[in-house]
Amino acid sequence: MKRRLLSASLVLLMAAPLWADTTVMHVAGHCSPWRGGYNASPSHAWLTNWPNANADGVLAEFSRADLLSAINSEITAAGGWDAKLVVTQVEWINTQPPADLAPVAVSVDVDPSTLVWLSSSAFDAGGGSWRFDGSSYPNFVAAVNAGVSAGKSHVVTGAPWQPVWKPVGVEPISGVDYWNVELDVPEYLIVHYLNNPNAVGLFFGAEKSNGYIQIYGNDQWGRVGDIRVVIKSPPTTAPWLNASVLTINETIALTNPTMSVPVTVTNAGSGTIAWTAAAAPAVSWLSLGGASGGH
């Protein structure tokens, strides 16, 4: 019998040397940008209007192996990790992204049976209505909300974000003027995606309701302008919670189905921090020996 648990974040406190950020781009061809609600876009997405029915954005699949490799490398070097979702504004719009953009990030669990990459829109999964757990929904947001209620999708709003003008040495798009929109997502969003094999991808949208921002999509510039995940070292100038275990994947004998796994929680930054832990979802075969603490 296999039992798997992913904690909300990671791991051991170590001295943090300088370490290069790792950019994990989406799986080639597995990207669906849409704009204007109904319009699947061949090249660009709009970020606007979440959580309304016609919310635009971009959905893409990411390799779990690549994400986990980047996370483990950062842990080894820096003792922890930080995750950002990044998108790039198209080059002919040279104004700074609006202050009221309010980005949204989602780990998306929907039925893949009708999901057609490069063809999906807010109202159609490309091969029919958006579906979750065998049921049809009138739009993408409704299908995501059904997944959230079941604990299968996860939505992040209100996370810190910043516009970055032509970051030097990060994005290999030469001769192009652009802004990056960098959303500092909770690491649990990435862990949630890693922990759910039925999650089809990560979505980047925005709550902005008056106007929109237009971004690259659909393998633009070899995917470096599309939605991507950046794994980097955690900050050391603020409290930063790490746990010593990211995954547990064990085979347990049915005749004696008992095991324990120690998890060390540390503050990888400065100051003090209080923490609590809980099983999500709560199951009868899993218990926590200590569910709170402070450092």
Kindly describe this structure.
- Strand 9 (130-132) and strand 10 (135-137) form a beta hairpin.
- Helix content is 12%, strand content 30%.
- It has 295 residues and is mainly beta.
Give descriptors for this structure.
295 residues, six-stranded antiparallel sheet, 3 helices, disordered N terminus
Q: Roughly what fraction of the amino acids lie in strands?
A: 25-35%
**Stretches where pLDDT falls below 50 for ≥5 residues?**
1-18
Helix fraction bin: 10-25%
Shape: globular
* Terminus-to-terminus distance: 35 Å
Give the count of helical stretches. 3
Q: Major sheet: size, sense and barrel closure?
A: 6 strands, antiparallel
* Element-by-element helix/strand order: EEEEEEHEEEEHEEEHEEEEEEEE
**Numbering strands along the chain, what is their spatial order in the largest sheet?**
4-3-6-14-8-11
- Secondary-structure-based class equals mainly beta
